[in-house]
Write a structure and sequence with these properties.
The protein is an alpha+beta fold and 350 residues long. The chain has ten helices and twelve strands. The strands form three sheets. It has a five-stranded antiparallel β-sheet. Strands 7-9-10-12-11 form a five-stranded mixed β-sheet, covered by helices on one side.
Length: 350
Amino acid sequence: MNLASLFNRNSEEFDTKKILKLLPDAVFVLSEEGQITWANKKAVLMFENLGKPLSECHFDEIVADGMVIAENAIKESKSIATGAFSSTGKEIFIELSAVKNEDEYYVTARDITTLTGLLELAEDTGKLNKEKNYMLCKLSGDLKSPIQSIAGFTQTLLEGGGGKITQKQTKYLNIINKNANELSYFLDKLLEFSWAQSTLLKVVYKTFDIQNCIQNITKPMGIVFEHEDLEKRNLCSDESLIKTVIMSLFDAASKVSDSGEIGIKLKTDNQNAHISVYNKGVGLAEDEKPDLFDPYSQLDKPGRRNVLRSLNLATAENIVKKLAGEIVIESSLAYGTVFNVVLPMEKIDE
């Protein structure tokens, strides 16, 4: 509530206290010493204790260090969130605004206890997510070992390590091996996503050749790498994290469509490196584009590939943000999909 505007008018035009009575917030008029000289009905309902009327109270009895906070609100020209005591003696949270007119203080108080509870819940949820991600990362070995053992032993059996097997047994072992490998891949991506969201993700800055970095990734994979004659190739960032971003985008591109050439382009300028991973396949329909970076939103959609694609994109997005960059998707049916990453060439101090 901007109380100052009430005192910029001619006092003969209207009764200020009559206006204050109509406000939805609790309103106090205080003497210079902090004694409450007037309060509206809302203030009485919120703060008056049956044993003592507000007119006999000092404002500091309602709000701890209330006069100091009111002075700060006036000095900073903004509302201040603080604690107060309700009529039942219960502590609540209020948003306090104040203005001084001649020798009186006009103070408003809005109950934000519910909002504060929601913020605390959001903070606790965020903390819980970080702890969950940290736990998953720390248990990654315990989670992956059994699956890797299943895949390894079935492969050994298929290769005759346990003696001769029948055609029917071979069929079943191939199914077990395939599913174990798919589960292992899915778990790898889930753990990578958890790591990218956790406090375990640390950035180690060093200067390296971004063109050589990408070539080292694409050459063994046979992926097309397009680049111009770059005037600037030295990037100060975390090479390992950038490799993770590129590999995640390659995986995401492979989940966009079953066909279509996958490749990567690089160009740089004095400020930024521009990395574009593309799939020249079918592209994404409009109803596939919302929440692409949110794996949780994909859980109700058919197809495991949607979740895997979003896990890869969310991992890439978290890392790119950590590197002070940004990532944008361009996609349309029949024209393919491009994942554009922009990273600063030099370290940006926080």
